[in-house]
Design goal:
- This is SH2 domain-containing protein.
- InterPro entries: SH2 (IPR000980), SH2_dom_sf (IPR036860).
- The chain is α+β, with helices and mostly antiparallel strands and 81 residues long.
- It has one domain: SHC Adaptor Protein.
- It is built from three helices and six strands, in the order H-E-H-E-E-E-E-E-H.
- The protein has a six-stranded mixed β-sheet with strand order 1-2-3-4-5-6.
- A hairpin with a 2-residue loop joins strand 2 and strand 3.
- The longest helix has 7 residues.
């Protein structure tokens, strides 16, 4: 994925309230920077089944990116429009 494609979905620091108008239909998503437990990290925010879902994006010591306990290369697994 090239940087320009990523920039379409990355929105920097936004609050949950800020993203509501941006995610309106099933499958809409964005990636934002958040302050979580005193650390700056990324959140994947998805609109699905008429509600917003928020997922913290983690990275382990091996460089693997994961959400919760499932380790995948998320940026290549997401189907981008």
């Amino acid at each position: 994925m090239d940087q320009n494609h990523f920039d379409k979905y990355y929105h920097g620091f936004l609050t949950k309230r800020d993203i509501k108008p941006l995610l309106k239909k099933d499958g809409d998503f964005l990636i934002r920077k958040i302050d979580w437990k005193g650390a700056i990290t990324l959140s994947l925010d998805v609109y699905a089944n008429k509600e917003l879902k928020h997922f913290i994006i983690n990275q382990n010591a091996n460089g693997e990116i994961y959400i919760d306990k499932v380790k995948v290369n998320i940026f290549y697994q997401l189907q981008l429009n």
